[in-house]
Write a structure and sequence with these properties.
Elements lengths: L1 H26 L5 E2 L4 E5 L5 E3 L7 E3 L5 E8 L11 E7 L9 H9 L3 E5 L5 H5 L1 H6 L1 H4 L12 H14 L5 E11 L1 H12 L2 E3 L5 E3 L10 E7 L5 H5 L23 H12 L16 H10 L5 H13 L14 E6 L8 H13 L5 E6 L10 H20 L8 E6 L9 E6 L8 E7 L3 E3 L19 E3 L7 E4 L8 E5 L2 E8 L6 E8 L4 E10 L4 E9 L3 E5 L4 E7 L25 E12 L26 H5 L6 E2 L6 E2 L4 E2 L3 E2 L6 E2 L2 E7 L5 E7 L2 E2 L8 E2 L2 H10 L3 E7 L10 E4 L8
Helix pairs in contact: 9-10
């Protein structure tokens, strides 16, 4: 027995030793390299497997031979089960940046994700630096910056993910991939989410996204932060985007260059270091030529339109084939981001929701992003939490289904103040139930030499900067009444509807909404750049970028229309003007202006200052987005009750009712008529009515009506017509009065 025990112990020891030899191979615990051995991996102190380097580089050839600097990391070897098939989070950097290092990946590694990051071609050690070019001259010959071209940078990321899916038994799950990143990385994440399970080839064809071994890959979720969706529009807007239409492509003339941003980005990319294609050598990536053409300014001919066409078709997620629903997207934009403002994600949201109402989309807004944003910890922390929940749910099925719709935080000053909010809504159309309107029928002139002189240039001033509240000379100025003591909160995009008249086709209009404080200073709330149609006077509409901002009691909202949001002189290095002044700018005449400011307050509040949103002014060629169309503000109907005549037979006091399913009903007039005789018996105006509201009206009957009631005692019919300006035809609603007669 003793001998048998000894033999058994020896067998157990031998079996354990053999298992130890076999286990690393079966479980792939020693992930020694990735990308066919190009990039070595090392085990860190916490067990994380990191494949890459911080210096000088860890490159692997892209599909066309360009050496791309990459980092990959995997969680520690699991205690049991397979070592591999990890969900993958792809992380992308901003313009001129580089791949994310191990420290930036740690958060996702701790949560059980594999991570991937790359330095986009043309920057730093991906053919941007002299050393990287010298290390592979032939590979870097065409390794220049392409501005997130779907056929190049986007395909690079897809190809590397495919290779990870093919490594060994599969290091990553090809169906559980997320894409995150900000700014330039946000543009990349948007493109990957829009493509989802497809790739774009150099010949522009769209094909299924498959690994080299033929595995099908798919983006399961994205969280693009401060991205663009239309690169041409974000850099040179022309006012063709509206936040309430279904489809908002870049249409019309070449817009107004955001000169300080365009110049600053161009220089920062070169200094990264970056590699731009020699001017004129590649029309699909001619950054030098494009920058020079924008700085030359008007008139813009066919060569300028070719630039717009290239940037929209191949560098912008909005124009990616949308014949299939995109991956779930948590899109975050900064209200105070003057480079890639909130309309960049709203544009994509509106069209996608119109085509795919069940698409998993969420919008997140606040004071963060590019300058002039403050990036307060409370709002960026909330965004981090939302991003975690979004990725965890769609990649690992953890947690409850994330909230869709909109979450927004308001800008507050000074910077030490917490952000306002959060404010939530089921969609962008319903985030602001009320509207503050201002109108001025008078004719104003925007002088050709009116400018801000560079005030509030985002590259040099912050969100809470102030200036003396003197009016800009030569500007068209529109001042609202001071806000009541309670104040009110802008939430969304201010719309300007007016008649514009101008000569030539090179002029522009810049708009700024300012908050004039009682202490004699003013702050910038939001802004916009626009090219109105020539000729006129023609009724037109444009919008300022969205923001969330509270006008405190006593503060005055001021709309300022000027010829240039910057200086009127074009001098190098073009960093002093937010908007480039137009060549041959002419005076612009404005008349019959109406400003519509969406607010968080409900219609009818603040003593009637807040009204229901007016029907949207939808230009020819556009369609109202379904979410906005569904939020109709109908005319109230007569409440279901009998009417009694009082005041010695001279007065009727009916009630009108706004259905609860609506936020509010339009102001209008209730008119009583005899059903058989058809003449007017009396009428009364009513203001905006909150949903579920039943205000009582007082109608003084006409002499003819009093006689008719006295002798006939007939039932009455009624109709209610809207008094809102933009409705082409009165929207009549008919109904009946319950009860057989009017009681006296």
């Amino acid at each position: 027995m003793i001998g048998c025990d000894r033999v058994s112990k020896k067998l157990i020891v031998f079996a354990a030793f053999a298992a130890a030899l076999v286990a690393p191979q079966a479980a792939q615990a020693t992930i020694s390299s990735v990308f066919d051995g190009d990039v070595a991996c090392t085990v860190q102190g916490d067990g994380v497997r990191f494949c890459g380097s911080s210096t000088p580089r860890s490159t692997s050839e892209a599909w066309d031979g360009v050496p791309i600097d990459v980092n990959v990391a995997f969680p520690p070897e699991p205690a049991s089960g397979p070592d591999g098939d990890f969900p993958l989070v792809m992380m992308f950097h901003g313009y001129g940046g580089g791949k994310i290092g191990l420290g930036g990946m740690q958060h996702w590694l701790d949560k059980g994700y594999a991570t991937f990051s790359m330095t986009d071609r043309g920057f730093r050690e991906s053919c941007g630096s002299a050393a990287s070019k010298a290390a592979d001259p032939s590979g870097c010959a065409n390794g220049y910056v392409r501005l997130i071209d779907n056929r190049y940078e986007v395909r690079d990321a897809q190809e590397f993910a495919g290779r990870l899916a093919d490594e060994g038994a599969g290091l990553i799950d090809p169906q559980r991939i997320a894409a995150i990143g900000g700014s330039y990385g946000g543009g990349m994440s948007m493109a990957l989410g829009a493509l989802k399970d497809r790739m774009v080839m150099p010949d522009y064809s769209v094909v299924p996204w498959k690994s080299p071994a033929g595995k099908a890959l798919e983006i399961a979720a994205t969280a693009p932060n401060i991205p663009w969706t239309d690169l041409a529009y974000s850099l040179a807007p022309n006012g063709s985007t509206l936040d309430y239409v279904t489809d908002a492509p870049y249409t019309g003339r070449v817009g107004v260059s955001k000169q300080s941003y365009v110049s600053g980005l161009f220089l920062s990319g070169l200094g990264a270091p970056g590699f731009y294609a020699p001017e004129g050598s590649d029309p699909t990536a001619d950054l030098i030529g494009w920058r020079d053409r924008l700085n030359e300014g008007e008139p813009y001919g066919p060569e300028s339109q070719a630039i717009i066409d290239e940037l929209t078709q191949h560098h912008s997620s909005y124009y990616i084939d949308h014949s299939e629903k995109p991956a779930p997207m948590l899109m975050s934009s900064g209200f105070t981001d003057d480079l890639f403002p909130a309309d960049e994600t709203i544009r994509y949201y509106n069209r996608t929701k119109a085509e795919y109402p069940d698409a998993d989309l969420a919008l997140f807004f606040g004071d963060f992003g590019h300058p002039r944003a403050q990036n307060k910890p409370d709002v960026t922390g909330a965004l981090d939490d939302r991003q975690d929940a979004w990725i965890d749910y769609y990649l690992k099925g953890e947690g409850t289904e994330p909230r869709q719709g909109v979450e927004a935080y308001t800008e507050t000053c000074p910077g030490s103040e917490p952000s306002g909010g959060p404010y939530t809504a089921k969609n962008w159309a319903s985030i602001a139930p009320g509207e503050v309107r201002y109108s001025d029928p008078a004719e104003h002139t925007i002088a050709a030499d009116s400018s801000t002189g560079g005030a509030f240039n985002p590259t040099s001033t912050g969100a809470c900067a102030t200036t003396p509240s003197a009016d800009t000379e030569g500007a068209a100025i529109y001042e609202l009444d001071p806000a009541p003591d309670e104040g009110y909160t802008l939430m969304g995009a201010v719309s300007v509807v007016a008649k514009f008249e101008l000569s030539g086709d090179t002029s522009q209009v810049a708009a700024r909404l300012l908050d004039m404080a009682p202490d004699g200073t003013e702050s910038l709330v939001d802004r916009g750049l626009w090219r109105p149609a020539e000729g006129g006077p023609t009724k037109q509409v444009f919008q300022l970028h969205p923001n969330g901002w509270t006008f405190a009691g006593g503060h005055v909202p001021k709309l300022e229309l000027i010829a240039a949001d910057g200086t009127v002189v074009n001098t190098e290095p073009f960093l002093t003007s937010y908007g480039r002044p137009s060549n041959d700018q002419q005076d612009v005449t404005v008349s019959d202006l109406e400003m519509r400011m969406p607010v968080l307050e409900k219609p009818g509040t603040l003593g009637g200052l807040v009204g229901a949103p007016a029907p949207k002014y939808v230009p020819q060629g556009y369609d109202l987005a379904p979410d906005f169309a569904a939020l109709r503000h109908p005319n109230p109907r007569l409440l279901n009750r009998k009417l009694r005549v009082s005041g010695k037979g001279k007065i009727v006091k009916p009630r009108v009712k706004c259905p609860k399913k609506f936020d509010s009903c339009h102001a209008g007039r209730l008119t009583l008529k005899a059903r058989d005789a058809g003449f007017k018996m009396g009428s009364a105006k009513f203001g905006t009515v909150d949903g579920g509201g039943t205000p009582k009206l007082t109608i003084r009957l006409t002499k003819r009506a009093r006689k008719y009631i006295k002798t006939k005692h007939r039932r009455l019919a009624f109709e209610s017509t809207t008094s809102v300006a933009e409705v082409a035809k009165a929207n009549h609603q008919r109904g009946k009065i319950i009860g057989k007669k009017i009681r006296r």
